[in-house]
Amino acid sequence: MCEGSCAYMPFGEGPRICIGLRFGIMQAKIGMAIMLKDYKYTLNRNNPDMELSSKAPLLAPKGDVLLHIEKVD
Question: Does the keyword Transit peptide belong to this entry (predicted)?
Answer without folding.
Answer: no
